[in-house]
Design a protein that fits this description.
alpha/beta, Rossmann fold, five-stranded parallel beta sheet, 10 helices
Length: 203
């Protein structure tokens, strides 16, 4: 699986500059968002903002940013499926071969003494988990990196073959689902506790 386009949007920025520079040096187009895009641009790495890629600005205070067919279609397309390829052509969708996304720990958000329920809910990430799950689902064609410690392995494989092996994509997908499961578990624990407290207070 040759890597020609990558989407990088990470909370944990460990090693992301080296990783992105490596990809850029090999002609990989880099899509990015927010703080990650700013960091990479400040380091002289060429990135294309997601809103420029989709042709649609982020809306609703950033709640809707990466939830777009040009993002998820690019990640989820089955590359040897003729219908998918036709849909890509008809909708201006290009493949995204590598996704590097990791999530800010929700438990750290709610651990802040002044964090309100409304603030906690506003900090529930939607686009990040959606991209992770899309890439993990389509790991036959797309590599997903949620752990910076995996960058080295990915770079080694790309250096040797221009792509990421199926074995590595399989392993990365398993880790990705663990990452989103842990994230959802943190949210579940917080909301279950908050709403059980609310019931007790109102009874």
């Amino acid at each position: 699986m040759k890597v020609t386009r990558a989407l990088i949007s990470v909370w944990d920025k460990t090693g992301v500059e080296e990783f992105a520079r490596f990809l850029q040096d090999r002609g990989v187009e880099i899509l990015s968002t927010g703080g990650t895009a700013k960091l990479l641009c400040d380091k002289g790495i060429a990135v294309k903002n997601v809103d420029s890629h989709t042709g649609h600005p982020e809306i609703m205070d950033g709640r809707v940013k990466t939830l777009h067919p040009k993002i998820h279609g690019g990640i989820l397309a089955i590359r040897d499926n003729l219908t998918h390829r036709e849909d890509m052509r008809n909708n201006g969708i290009v493949p995204i071969d590598l996704v590097a996304v990791n999530l800010y720990p929700f438990k750290d958000t709610v651990a802040k003494p002044d964090c309100t329920l409304a603030e906690a809910i506003e900090n529930i990430d939607i686009g990040g988990p959606a991209m992770i799950r899309s890439a993990a689902k389509n790991h036959s064609f797309t590599a997903i990196a949620v752990d910076p410690s995996d960058y080295k392995k990915i770079m080694e494989e790309i250096e040797k073959t221009d792509g990421v092996s199926q074995k590595t994509r399989n392993d990365l997908a398993v880790k990705a689902y663990s990452h989103t499961a842990d994230y959802d578990s943190q949210i579940h624990k917080y909301l279950a506790l908050k709403y059980s407290e609310s019931v007790c207070q109102n009874s």
